[in-house]
Amino acid sequence: MTTKPYGLFCPTSKACDILMPRWIIQILGELWGGSTRFNEIRRGLPGISPTLLTKWLKELQENGILQRVEDQATGNIDYLRTEKAAELDSILAGLAKWAQHHIKAEIALADRDADLLMWNVRRQIDLDELPAKQNVMRLNFSDVTSPASTYWLITKPGETVELCASDPGFDVDLYIETEVAVMTSFYLARRSFESAVVDEKFFMSGDQRFIKTFQRWLKFSMHSHADDIAQINDLVLTS
To answer: Fewest CB within 10 angstroms: 22, 88, 150, 158, which?
Structure first.
């Protein structure tokens, strides 16, 4: 282990020796969300450098939390969680539940990175609730802090949802106009989706099938089901 230990013998401190260095919990969260490739993990953690990510992935392997698997035919490398990592699921879920309940929405929604939001949203699309064809959704955000403000989600039956930040050139089935702060707020259940629509902060146009079934084909965050989630004050969304 390359990190400096706390020098305390209690089990909690020993766990912190391994889990508390910056980015470790976030890397585990990306793996928990389904990322297995180096570039996928880095896409979900835009603030980490490739060098630092390589270092922590190696250390997590040495601690038996990850397994590095290389496909000899293609050369592709996947980082898979071990049983030791799976035992952390309840701990990560508990931390998220605590944050949803105790951290003020004003703080939780302060970051307005559309790229990061869309990277997570594309995981939550239920293909079984969409027409069995290629579907294209265009989302435009007016308050971004990331380089891109417009994104396209492309779905096909049985395939991974594709996220694009440049126009793929396909006909669009659904257009969405909103703000990152607004979509993040109902995605994390910090406010209701219905209130965002009523307050004219979330606009949809296009194929009515997509509009009427929006809350069926887009499953909100896995952390949106926590009890007593701290709610947003609408004044925050206009600041």
So the answer is: 158
CA 60 to chain centroid, in Å, comes to 21
Averaged pLDDT in 10-residue chunks for the chain of 239 residues: 59 80 91 93 92 96 95 94 94 90 84 88 95 97 86 96 96 97 92 91 96 95 84 57
Domains in the chain: how many in total? 2
Residue 188's closest CA among 232, 146, 131, 239?
232
Together in a domain, 182 and 129: yes
For 80, 215, 230, the CA distances from 205, given in Å and listed in that order, are 40, 15, 30
115 and 71 in a common domain = no
Sign of CA dihedral 169, 173, 178, 179: negative
